[in-house]
């Protein structure tokens, strides 16, 4: 995550606070101790005169006996390059990819306990435009939107990110929240999808800012990242849906209180709905389900008020043709059927990012089949991070697992390809 302070990388002068001297302070002894203190030093990367530096480069620092008090990064025309500091102080990440085949100069100043300062300068040249194939990334988190409290930040990759490259990619994925609610990224086992969430659902009113800073990043030996992607969105009210196959009822909650119950018809035994904890991914007032070429498919049907739950094509949607069965029998091809009036009402209540839990069906939700960050507990989710997760991150409470939750985490994830099979 980004540190909250923003740096425009120009030279900064930082004055050390004067030492308070009282009547009983031994001035000469203090001076001796100050003189004996080791002077500060700093190593800066990229190395001086380095060439063919990726445009994803950042100014890295390794400091001894001091702290960074000034950073200056300029291009070959002397213009400052704005950047943000990493939370651990290990470097500064430019706000945008550097330009190809350009020369940059970085100057870093550190101050030590001795009162002395040290400055190091490095000049490097970026590489020409890469001819390696790009890994396409898609950020399923849009700018200026309002999401539900369970909305994870989700990135999809094509081709998948190999295990040995995931740590480098993850280090370039930044999430900032206000108020602060830190979390971690977690990778699907096949590397096609990474999701970010906190231990608890987002607090209503939270602002989430995301940057996927992958343009020009070397990914493995044969590929580079395709693009930088940024988005800032808000978290809205807390809404959740519980769907029980035993009772054939959907219970709609807002802020923990029941708003309404709706009868449903789920997937028939040959095409069952998935049990698990998922998230509303998309909402469509009108869409078409086209299952030609799919198993048990072959039909094309227009539907209203459809809300996607999985990549595999499970939706909540209006199904006036099954209203006589809703609350009693399962007749769908895997979707949650509700009445036309109920579906219309539901569209006005829900948001993309709302939590949906289905329980009691014949099959379990597979990891990566949709936004599945909440289908496992926090500890299991954090195991999917390619970088160390701070030990202090944990849920504020340890509630009984939601009845719709499943263990998951080990089964291969399906390809994140949108299917409008529906039904």
UniProtKB/TrEMBL annotation:
Transmembrane segments: none
Pfam families: Big_10, YkuD
Residues annotated as catalytic: 317 (proton donor/acceptor), 335 (nucleophile)
Signal peptide range: 1-26
GO cellular component annotations of the record: extracellular region
Keywords for the protein's UniProt record, in alphabetical order: Acyltransferase, Cell shape, Cell wall biogenesis/degradation, Peptidoglycan synthesis, Signal, Transferase
Residue spans of biased composition, Basic and acidic residues class: 73-89
Region feature Disordered, mapped onto this chain: 72-93, 387-423
The L,D-TPase catalytic domain, residue ranges: 239-359
GO biological process: cell wall organization; peptidoglycan-protein cross-linking; regulation of cell shape
Keyword Transferase applies: yes
Pathway membership: Cell wall biogenesis; peptidoglycan biosynthesis
GO molecular function: acyltransferase activity; peptidoglycan L,D-transpeptidase activity
Biased composition (Low complexity): 403-412
Name used for this protein in its record: Ig-like domain-containing protein
Annotated organism of origin: Micromonospora robiginosa
